[in-house]
From TrEMBL:
Protein encoded by which gene: rsmD
Residue stretches spanning the membrane: none
Pfam families: Cons_hypoth95
Domain of life: Bacteria
NCBIfam families referenced in this protein's UniProt entry, alphabetically: 16S rRNA (guanine(966)-N(2))-methyltransferase RsmD (TIGR00095)
PANTHER family associated with the record: METHYLTRANSFERASE
Protein name according to UniProt: 16S rRNA (Guanine(966)-N(2))-methyltransferase RsmD
MF GO annotations: 16S rRNA (guanine(966)-N(2))-methyltransferase activity
Native source species: Weissella coleopterorum
Length: 183
């Protein structure tokens, strides 16, 4: 795996060993960023199921100012820290070992997020519940973008809270769904 573009483009990153996580392939990562806008002018991102941290690192490489990465597995947190070290800008990343629900509570009251990556385990689609908790805690910025990576069986709705379906693409069994926040 590698960082595809931006400031850290071309640097190699590691996947979490074992089968507990499913890393986003370079092809799908590139497709995601082509859909949500290839580069950013600041902003904050949140990944509640960070795995190796590849999506957040790619986002910061492309201009996101600060990324919060959450995962509950010790092995994932270890790899995220190693991958973030590759950037040599660890200050742009906040790594939290926690469940998604606990992390949302912990982040309550902080500055809202502009970009959300949702790539929970396929068998455990909690996107709608997570978005409701993020909204309750004031963590969604106006005009935020939500990217959901699911399998074809997830059948996400046209709306999740105030997020409205914007774009959707299928890549084999993987479905990328992009939502925009509308008040």
């Amino acid at each position: 795996m590698r960082i595809i573009s931006g400031e850290y483009g071309g640097r190699m990153i590691k996947a979490v060993p074992g089968s507990a996580t499913r890393p986003t392939t370079d092809k799908i990562k590139e497709a995601i960023f082509n859909l949500i806008g290839p580069y950013f002018d600041g902003g904050r991102s949140l990944d509640l199921y960070a795995g190796s941290g590849g999506l957040s690192i790619e986002g910061v490489s492309r201009g996101i100012e600060q990324a919060v990465l959450v995962d509950r597995q010790f092995a994932a947190i270890k790899i995220i820290k190693e991958n973030v070290a590759v950037t040599k800008e660890e200050g742009k990343f906040n790594i939290i070992k926690s469940s998604a629900e606990q992390a949302i509570q912990r982040l309550s009251g902080q500055k809202p997020f502009d970009l959300f990556y949702f790539d929970p385990p396929y068998a455990k689609q909690t996107i709608q519940a997570d978005v409701a908790k993020l909204s309750e805690n004031g963590l969604i910025a106006k005009e935020a973008i939500l990217m959901a990576e699911t399998d074809q069986e997830a059948n996400l709705p046209e709306e999740i809270g105030n997020f409205k379906l914007w774009k959707q693409r299928e890549y084999g069994i993987t479905v990328i769904t992009i939502y925009r926040f509308e008040e």
